[in-house]
Amino acid sequence: MNRRNFLASSFAAAPLCAILNACGKTPAGKLRLALDWKPEPEFGGFYAANYANHGLTVDILPGGSGTPTVQMIGAGSAEFGTVSADELVVARARGNDVVALFAVFQNCPQGIMVHPSPNMNSIGDVFRSGTVAIERGLPYARILEKKYGFDKVKIVPSPGGDISAFLHDPHFAQQCFVTSEPLAAMHAGVATKVFPISDSGYNPYTTVLATSGALLRDHPATARAMVEAVREGWQSYLASPTATNANMHGVNPSMDLATFAEVAEAQKPWIQTADTATNGLGTMTAARWDTLIAQLKDLGDISQPMNAAECFRLL
Amino acid sequence: MPRKWRTSAKTILPPLIPFVVLTLTGEWIVRAGIVPSYLLPTPTAVFRAIIDNRAELTRAMLKTSGSAFAGFALSTIIGIGIAVLLSSSRWVQRAFYPYAVFFQTVPIIAIAPLLVIWFGYGMRTVVASAFVVSIFPVIANTLNGILSTDPALRDLFRLYDASQLDTLIKLRFPAALPQILTGLRISSGLAVIGAIVGEFIGGDGIGSVIDVARTQQRVDKVFAAVLMASLLGLLLFGLINLVSTLTLRRWHASEQQP
User: Fold this and answer.
1) Which residue from A92, A146, A315, B195 puts its CA 20 to 30 A from A153's CA?
2) Domain of residue B166, residue span
3) Mutation target vs A (from B31, B40, B114, B215; most A CBs, 10 A cutoff)
């Protein structure tokens, strides 16, 4: 820290710390894990983990639509968080030093859900007519726009997990978590067809445990213990999710236990892949990060090329 | 200093000083590295975002203004209408006022998906959202204004056998104007918020720009869009103040300069 910065921070730091919580970065006490959605099976392993066994006390903070976990990690209001890989690359390009540690979903579980019809055979068919609810700011939305064009459909905001418009309109398609909204629609008696986003060639790791570069530097043992606890948590959740599901259902009663069990089963192939069979759950490769970085640079979301190695760390 | 300059300095300086202080502080705490720029953009970055995205922001502003104005106009007309009806008798008031409170407590985000189904994607949903969020202060303040007419004047009207309608138009309504305008001032800001929330789910406008910029972690653009929304709120607020000055300056203390 140079002198000017030192003076500046000593004047303003005290009240700002109170606001941003940025100074309490000693992970000695309670660690906070910020989730980017409600407690649902996609976070099962985090709830199943026995942190105490690894000498950690972890507070899980459930999130919702738009919870800015990347910024929370950067601001120090959470030591750990779940993010998606593309979010992390963009954040790094903006100077937010966030590093991926463990990728739960090896393949991106985002998809476009449509009403089945003989004309709907590939993800490109989605953009031929009707209404598509999609978050325009997301990189994959813009990749789809580049590839298929959005001029023949009406693009509307994503209703964030709500499926009432979909149930109501047979020409309505919406972005979804492949293991979530389609099941909800099925329970409401409406059949669906789902095209995973990865079909378009865009496949970022999703539900990625991340932390700040600072924590990784200053407390590597804590980060390692966290990853071990999370990996064991996921192993145990994949083997028997029942008890953890009951636990999460207590926090999020809006999803019933039968759905919890169904989703936990349906998401397995997205979490366990050939890669994880050889390298362990949560593994990541530099090649996958490189592809993602190139795609984001192509889109103009980042302006400079980035070194894949700085985005993730396998502990 | 010529007198004209001195008066304009008097009106411009007070709001200018906090602006300059806040802007400089904002610029400084980011440049000094106290707050990282991905959490708080510098005022210059926000200004640049406005310049770089001026076409998009202008288009969005026009859309949002249209919807906010429409929702606000509906709130004004329907809100005053409802308040007049409620004021007609104690019984009506007891029967229906509790339901008017309903509007104030509607969690707009919760019913948003329904608004989309009822009104479709686009402007009608946005106007409905602006209306629902902004009507209650109009009802509450108008009703309060009408009910607190000076009893002596009411007696005078009764003495001269004035009809209910005459009393309403010539006495109760004009006497309630200051309160009605207070209600409208509160509503104007709410209408802008309602429109933007409506746009989060109905699409288009500033709401959509904010949503997209937030997803792309463009904090500067989020702030640029928020600034546009505040300008819109100020514009509506200024309009009501103008109406207020024109209608009240002859007789009400709130519009008379000391």
Assistant:
1) B195
2) 58-250
3) B215
Inter-chain touch A90–B208, beta carbons under 8 Å: no
Which residue(s) pair with A31 in the sheet? A58
Total Cβ atoms within 10 A of residue B188: 26
Residue in A71, A137, A154 closest to B215 by CB: A137
The pair of three-digit structure tokens given for residue B125, joined into one six-digit string? 């949903």
Using DSSP bridges, classify how beta strands A206-212 and A193-196 pair: parallel, antiparallel or unpaired: unpaired
pLDDT digits (tens, 9 = 90+) for B137-173: 999 999 999 999 888 998 999 999 988 888 888 898 8
Residue B5 lies in a domain: no
| Nearest residue in chain A measured CA to CA from B197 | A157
What is the CATH superfamily name and number for domain A110-200?
A: Periplasmic binding protein-like II (3.40.190.10)
A230 touches A209 (CB < 8 A): yes
pLDDT at A18 over 90: no
Q: A110-200: same fold as A27-107+204-310?
A: yes
Task: Please judge whether B38 and A301 are an interchain contact, meaning their C-beta atoms are less than 8 angstroms apart.
Answer: no
Question: Which residues on A lie below 8 Å from B34 (Cβ)?
Answer: 8-9, 12-13, 16
Q: The domain spanning residue B95 has which CATH number?
A: 1.10.3720.10
Distance CA A141, CA B251 (A): 59
Residue A27: its pLDDT value, please? Answer: 55
Yes or no: is domain A27-107+204-310 CATH 3.40.190.10?
A: yes
Query: CB–CB of B33 and A9 under 8 A?
Result: yes
Per the domain annotation, does B215 fall within a domain?
A: yes
Domain membership flag for residue B221: yes
By the CB < 8 Å criterion, does B36 face chain A? yes
C-alpha count within 13 angstroms, C-beta hemisphere, residue B11? 5
Is B244 inside any structural domain? yes
CB contact under 8 A, A137 and B37: no
Residues 6+ apart with CB under 8 A from A244: A44, A47, A48, A236, A237
Interface test with A, best of B39, B119, B214, B219 (most A CBs within 10 A): B39
Q: Please tell me the total count of domains within chain B.
A: 1
Closest alpha carbon within chain B to A163: B113
The pTM (predicted TM-score) of the whole model is 0.80
Task: Tell me the pairing of strands A193-196 and A110-114.
Answer: antiparallel
**Structure ipTM:** 0.73
pLDDT tens-digit series, residues A86-136 = 999 999 999 999 999 999 999 999 999 999 999 999 999 999 999 999 998
**Among A162, A163, A166, A181, the residue to mutate for chain B (most B Cβ within 10 A):** A162
Do the chains contact at A168 and B117, CB–CB below 8 Å? yes
Residue extents of the structural domains in chain A = 27-107+204-310, 110-200
